[in-house]
Design goal:
307 residues, alpha+beta, Trna Endonuclease, Chain: A, domain 1, 30% strand
Protein backbone atom coordinates (compact mmCIF):
# COMPACT_ATOMS: atom_id res chain seq x y z
CA UNK A 1 0.00 0.00 0.00
CA UNK A 2 1.25 3.48 -0.79
CA UNK A 3 0.82 6.85 0.85
CA UNK A 4 -1.90 8.97 -0.74
CA UNK A 5 -2.24 12.13 1.33
CA UNK A 6 -4.26 13.75 -1.44
CA UNK A 7 -6.77 10.87 -1.34
CA UNK A 8 -7.03 11.10 2.44
CA UNK A 9 -7.71 14.83 2.14
CA UNK A 10 -10.40 14.30 -0.50
CA UNK A 11 -12.15 11.63 1.59
CA UNK A 12 -12.23 13.79 4.72
CA UNK A 13 -13.49 16.83 2.79
CA UNK A 14 -16.18 14.63 1.20
CA UNK A 15 -17.29 13.53 4.66
CA UNK A 16 -17.60 17.16 5.74
CA UNK A 17 -19.79 18.03 2.73
CA UNK A 18 -21.97 14.98 3.39
CA UNK A 19 -23.21 16.81 6.47
CA UNK A 20 -25.12 19.22 4.22
CA UNK A 21 -28.77 18.25 4.61
CA UNK A 22 -30.71 17.41 1.46
CA UNK A 23 -27.67 17.50 -0.84
CA UNK A 24 -26.43 14.61 -2.98
CA UNK A 25 -22.68 14.14 -2.59
CA UNK A 26 -20.48 12.01 -4.87
CA UNK A 27 -16.74 11.45 -4.57
CA UNK A 28 -14.33 11.02 -7.50
CA UNK A 29 -16.77 11.37 -10.40
CA UNK A 30 -15.96 11.09 -14.11
CA UNK A 31 -18.11 13.27 -16.39
CA UNK A 32 -17.98 13.96 -20.12
CA UNK A 33 -17.05 17.58 -20.78
CA UNK A 34 -19.53 19.48 -22.93
CA UNK A 35 -16.77 21.51 -24.58
CA UNK A 36 -13.74 19.22 -24.47
CA UNK A 37 -15.75 16.03 -25.24
CA UNK A 38 -13.35 14.26 -22.89
CA UNK A 39 -13.91 12.57 -19.54
CA UNK A 40 -13.21 15.06 -16.76
CA UNK A 41 -12.41 14.03 -13.20
CA UNK A 42 -14.34 15.80 -10.44
CA UNK A 43 -13.10 15.39 -6.86
CA UNK A 44 -16.52 16.01 -5.29
CA UNK A 45 -19.82 16.56 -7.11
CA UNK A 46 -22.70 18.17 -5.23
CA UNK A 47 -26.32 18.56 -6.25
CA UNK A 48 -28.00 20.90 -3.76
CA UNK A 49 -31.76 21.61 -3.76
CA UNK A 50 -32.86 25.23 -3.87
CA UNK A 51 -36.36 26.69 -3.71
CA UNK A 52 -37.14 30.00 -5.39
CA UNK A 53 -40.08 31.49 -3.49
CA UNK A 54 -42.43 33.45 -5.77
CA UNK A 55 -45.33 33.95 -3.34
CA UNK A 56 -44.87 32.72 0.20
CA UNK A 57 -48.57 33.13 1.12
CA UNK A 58 -49.76 31.05 -1.84
CA UNK A 59 -46.93 28.54 -1.49
CA UNK A 60 -45.82 29.31 -5.04
CA UNK A 61 -42.22 28.16 -5.41
CA UNK A 62 -39.90 26.82 -8.08
CA UNK A 63 -37.65 23.95 -6.97
CA UNK A 64 -34.31 23.83 -8.78
CA UNK A 65 -31.09 21.89 -8.32
CA UNK A 66 -27.71 23.59 -8.08
CA UNK A 67 -24.70 21.76 -9.49
CA UNK A 68 -21.48 22.40 -7.57
CA UNK A 69 -18.03 20.94 -8.15
CA UNK A 70 -15.41 20.81 -5.41
CA UNK A 71 -11.70 20.64 -6.20
CA UNK A 72 -9.42 19.55 -3.34
CA UNK A 73 -5.87 20.85 -3.41
CA UNK A 74 -3.84 19.35 -0.58
CA UNK A 75 -0.86 21.63 -1.18
CA UNK A 76 1.91 22.89 1.09
CA UNK A 77 1.56 26.33 -0.54
CA UNK A 78 -1.32 28.67 -1.46
CA UNK A 79 -3.30 27.94 -4.63
CA UNK A 80 -2.06 30.13 -7.49
CA UNK A 81 -3.61 31.78 -10.53
CA UNK A 82 -2.87 28.92 -12.94
CA UNK A 83 -4.64 26.38 -10.73
CA UNK A 84 -7.68 28.63 -10.41
CA UNK A 85 -7.69 28.87 -14.20
CA UNK A 86 -7.86 25.07 -14.43
CA UNK A 87 -10.82 24.98 -12.04
CA UNK A 88 -12.64 27.69 -14.00
CA UNK A 89 -12.14 25.68 -17.19
CA UNK A 90 -13.42 22.51 -15.51
CA UNK A 91 -16.47 24.36 -14.14
CA UNK A 92 -17.36 25.59 -17.63
CA UNK A 93 -16.71 22.22 -19.27
CA UNK A 94 -19.06 20.28 -16.97
CA UNK A 95 -21.57 23.14 -16.82
CA UNK A 96 -21.53 23.55 -13.07
CA UNK A 97 -23.29 26.51 -11.48
CA UNK A 98 -20.37 27.14 -9.16
CA UNK A 99 -17.06 25.65 -8.04
CA UNK A 100 -15.43 25.39 -4.64
CA UNK A 101 -11.69 24.98 -4.22
CA UNK A 102 -10.56 23.60 -0.86
CA UNK A 103 -6.97 23.80 0.37
CA UNK A 104 -5.11 23.83 3.69
CA UNK A 105 -2.90 26.80 2.78
CA UNK A 106 -5.34 29.23 1.20
CA UNK A 107 -5.04 31.10 -2.07
CA UNK A 108 -2.89 33.92 -3.46
CA UNK A 109 -4.38 37.43 -3.78
CA UNK A 110 -4.34 37.35 -7.58
CA UNK A 111 -5.98 33.94 -7.70
CA UNK A 112 -8.61 35.08 -5.19
CA UNK A 113 -9.67 38.01 -7.41
CA UNK A 114 -9.90 35.76 -10.45
CA UNK A 115 -11.92 33.20 -8.50
CA UNK A 116 -14.45 35.77 -7.29
CA UNK A 117 -15.07 36.99 -10.84
CA UNK A 118 -15.67 33.47 -12.18
CA UNK A 119 -17.96 31.89 -9.58
CA UNK A 120 -15.25 29.99 -7.72
CA UNK A 121 -15.36 30.01 -3.92
CA UNK A 122 -12.05 29.32 -2.13
CA UNK A 123 -12.27 27.65 1.31
CA UNK A 124 -9.41 26.99 3.72
CA UNK A 125 -9.68 23.63 5.51
CA UNK A 126 -6.52 22.79 7.44
CA UNK A 127 -5.52 19.33 8.58
CA UNK A 128 -6.06 20.46 12.16
CA UNK A 129 -9.62 21.50 11.33
CA UNK A 130 -10.29 18.07 9.83
CA UNK A 131 -8.94 16.47 13.00
CA UNK A 132 -11.18 18.65 15.16
CA UNK A 133 -14.27 18.05 13.01
CA UNK A 134 -13.66 14.33 12.61
CA UNK A 135 -14.51 13.25 16.14
CA UNK A 136 -15.92 9.76 16.37
CA UNK A 137 -19.69 9.43 16.51
CA UNK A 138 -21.27 6.17 17.65
CA UNK A 139 -23.90 6.68 14.93
CA UNK A 140 -21.27 6.58 12.16
CA UNK A 141 -21.68 3.51 9.94
CA UNK A 142 -18.80 1.78 8.21
CA UNK A 143 -18.82 -1.43 6.22
CA UNK A 144 -16.38 -4.17 7.20
CA UNK A 145 -13.12 -3.75 5.31
CA UNK A 146 -12.55 -7.52 5.27
CA UNK A 147 -15.69 -9.25 4.02
CA UNK A 148 -17.25 -6.38 2.01
CA UNK A 149 -20.09 -8.65 0.95
CA UNK A 150 -23.26 -7.43 -0.71
CA UNK A 151 -25.45 -8.68 2.16
CA UNK A 152 -28.04 -10.29 -0.15
CA UNK A 153 -29.08 -12.61 2.68
CA UNK A 154 -30.09 -9.61 4.77
CA UNK A 155 -27.25 -9.86 7.28
CA UNK A 156 -25.53 -6.45 7.37
CA UNK A 157 -21.76 -6.20 7.34
CA UNK A 158 -21.62 -2.96 9.31
CA UNK A 159 -19.01 -2.57 12.01
CA UNK A 160 -20.22 -2.78 15.59
CA UNK A 161 -17.94 -0.30 17.36
CA UNK A 162 -16.79 -1.25 20.87
CA UNK A 163 -15.12 2.14 21.22
CA UNK A 164 -14.03 4.93 18.87
CA UNK A 165 -11.10 2.93 17.46
CA UNK A 166 -12.03 -0.77 17.65
CA UNK A 167 -15.02 -2.63 16.21
CA UNK A 168 -16.13 -5.99 14.84
CA UNK A 169 -18.13 -6.84 11.73
CA UNK A 170 -21.72 -7.82 12.49
CA UNK A 171 -21.51 -10.46 9.78
CA UNK A 172 -18.07 -12.07 9.80
CA UNK A 173 -16.94 -10.84 13.26
CA UNK A 174 -13.65 -9.61 11.78
CA UNK A 175 -11.64 -6.97 13.60
CA UNK A 176 -11.69 -3.42 12.21
CA UNK A 177 -9.76 -0.46 13.59
CA UNK A 178 -10.17 3.29 13.09
CA UNK A 179 -6.99 5.34 12.84
CA UNK A 180 -6.87 8.02 15.57
CA UNK A 181 -5.00 10.39 13.27
CA UNK A 182 -6.64 10.31 9.83
CA UNK A 183 -9.90 8.47 10.80
CA UNK A 184 -9.45 5.86 8.06
CA UNK A 185 -10.82 2.38 8.84
CA UNK A 186 -8.77 -0.78 8.29
CA UNK A 187 -9.53 -4.47 8.65
CA UNK A 188 -6.91 -6.62 10.39
CA UNK A 189 -6.71 -10.25 9.30
CA UNK A 190 -5.91 -13.02 11.80
CA UNK A 191 -2.61 -13.59 10.02
CA UNK A 192 -1.65 -9.99 10.85
CA UNK A 193 -2.16 -10.42 14.59
CA UNK A 194 1.00 -9.87 16.65
CA UNK A 195 2.58 -8.01 13.73
CA UNK A 196 3.40 -4.27 13.87
CA UNK A 197 1.09 -2.45 11.44
CA UNK A 198 0.99 1.15 10.31
CA UNK A 199 -1.76 3.29 8.84
CA UNK A 200 -1.85 2.93 5.06
CA UNK A 201 -1.99 6.71 4.71
CA UNK A 202 1.32 7.01 6.53
CA UNK A 203 -0.07 9.50 9.03
CA UNK A 204 2.25 8.06 11.67
CA UNK A 205 -0.07 5.89 13.74
CA UNK A 206 0.51 2.20 14.49
CA UNK A 207 -1.60 -0.85 15.41
CA UNK A 208 -0.79 -4.12 17.14
CA UNK A 209 -3.14 -6.97 18.03
CA UNK A 210 -1.86 -8.99 20.97
CA UNK A 211 -3.32 -12.44 21.63
CA UNK A 212 -3.75 -13.52 25.23
CA UNK A 213 -5.46 -16.53 26.81
CA UNK A 214 -8.30 -15.81 29.23
CA UNK A 215 -10.37 -18.72 30.62
CA UNK A 216 -8.92 -21.02 27.95
CA UNK A 217 -10.04 -18.68 25.15
CA UNK A 218 -7.99 -16.49 22.85
CA UNK A 219 -8.64 -12.82 23.51
CA UNK A 220 -7.56 -9.99 21.24
CA UNK A 221 -6.06 -6.95 22.92
CA UNK A 222 -5.75 -4.11 20.42
CA UNK A 223 -2.96 -1.59 20.98
CA UNK A 224 -3.22 1.65 19.03
CA UNK A 225 -0.50 4.31 19.08
CA UNK A 226 -1.15 7.73 17.55
CA UNK A 227 1.46 9.73 15.67
CA UNK A 228 2.73 11.59 18.74
CA UNK A 229 3.21 8.42 20.79
CA UNK A 230 5.04 6.70 17.92
CA UNK A 231 7.33 9.67 17.36
CA UNK A 232 8.20 10.13 21.03
CA UNK A 233 9.01 6.43 21.47
CA UNK A 234 10.88 6.20 18.17
CA UNK A 235 13.06 9.26 18.61
CA UNK A 236 13.93 8.44 22.21
CA UNK A 237 14.68 4.82 21.25
CA UNK A 238 17.04 5.89 18.46
CA UNK A 239 19.14 8.15 20.72
CA UNK A 240 22.11 6.57 22.47
CA UNK A 241 20.98 7.89 25.87
CA UNK A 242 17.32 6.98 25.18
CA UNK A 243 16.07 10.40 26.25
CA UNK A 244 14.54 13.54 24.77
CA UNK A 245 15.41 16.99 26.04
CA UNK A 246 12.58 19.38 26.86
CA UNK A 247 13.30 21.30 23.64
CA UNK A 248 13.23 18.11 21.53
CA UNK A 249 10.03 16.99 23.23
CA UNK A 250 8.29 20.34 22.63
CA UNK A 251 9.33 20.33 18.96
CA UNK A 252 7.79 16.90 18.39
CA UNK A 253 4.57 17.92 20.18
CA UNK A 254 4.28 21.11 18.12
CA UNK A 255 4.39 19.07 14.90
CA UNK A 256 1.46 16.86 15.87
CA UNK A 257 -2.28 17.33 16.51
CA UNK A 258 -2.30 16.19 20.14
CA UNK A 259 -4.42 19.19 21.23
CA UNK A 260 -7.47 17.71 19.54
CA UNK A 261 -7.41 14.55 21.61
CA UNK A 262 -8.79 16.40 24.66
CA UNK A 263 -5.78 15.93 26.92
CA UNK A 264 -3.76 18.51 28.84
CA UNK A 265 -0.51 16.54 28.84
CA UNK A 266 0.25 15.05 25.43
CA UNK A 267 2.60 12.37 26.80
CA UNK A 268 0.17 11.26 29.50
CA UNK A 269 -0.69 7.86 28.00
CA UNK A 270 2.96 6.89 27.64
CA UNK A 271 3.88 7.93 31.18
CA UNK A 272 0.80 6.35 32.75
CA UNK A 273 1.59 3.06 31.04
CA UNK A 274 5.23 3.38 32.15
CA UNK A 275 6.55 3.40 28.58
CA UNK A 276 8.28 6.74 29.17
CA UNK A 277 9.12 8.75 32.26
CA UNK A 278 10.40 12.19 33.17
CA UNK A 279 13.90 12.26 34.66
CA UNK A 280 16.84 14.52 35.36
CA UNK A 281 17.03 17.95 33.67
CA UNK A 282 13.39 17.65 32.57
CA UNK A 283 14.28 14.95 30.05
CA UNK A 284 11.76 12.39 28.84
CA UNK A 285 13.21 8.87 28.94
CA UNK A 286 12.01 5.72 27.23
CA UNK A 287 11.79 2.97 29.85
CA UNK A 288 12.82 -0.65 29.59
CA UNK A 289 9.15 -1.54 29.09
CA UNK A 290 8.90 1.21 26.47
CA UNK A 291 11.83 -0.26 24.54
CA UNK A 292 10.20 -3.68 24.66
CA UNK A 293 6.86 -2.31 23.41
CA UNK A 294 8.50 -0.24 20.68
CA UNK A 295 10.56 -3.17 19.35
CA UNK A 296 7.64 -5.62 19.40
CA UNK A 297 4.64 -3.44 18.48
CA UNK A 298 5.84 -0.38 16.54
CA UNK A 299 9.25 -0.89 14.96
CA UNK A 300 9.41 -1.92 11.27
CA UNK A 301 5.63 -1.95 10.70
CA UNK A 302 3.78 -3.38 7.71
CA UNK A 303 0.67 -2.09 5.94
CA UNK A 304 -2.65 -3.82 6.69
CA UNK A 305 -3.91 -5.85 3.71
CA UNK A 306 -7.53 -4.68 4.01
CA UNK A 307 -7.17 -0.92 3.85
Amino acid sequence: MQSYEWEWYEKRITELFKRVKGATIQHNVKELGKISKELRQIDILIFAPLDIIIDKRMGFRIPIEIKIIVDCKNRSRPIDLSEIGQIITLKSDVEAHMAIVVSPKGITDGAKKQAQNQGVLPIVVTHDLIAAAGKWDKEDWYECRICEWDCEDGIPNYIDWRNENVGYCGRCNSLNVRCPECHEVFGILEGEYETPLQCGYECGSAFYVELTIVDHERVQEVHIFDMLECRLLSEAYNKSNHRLTQKEYEKIVSETRWQYWEVDRPEIVLTEECLMEWGEQDCLYITTEGIKVYESMIKDPEYPVCG
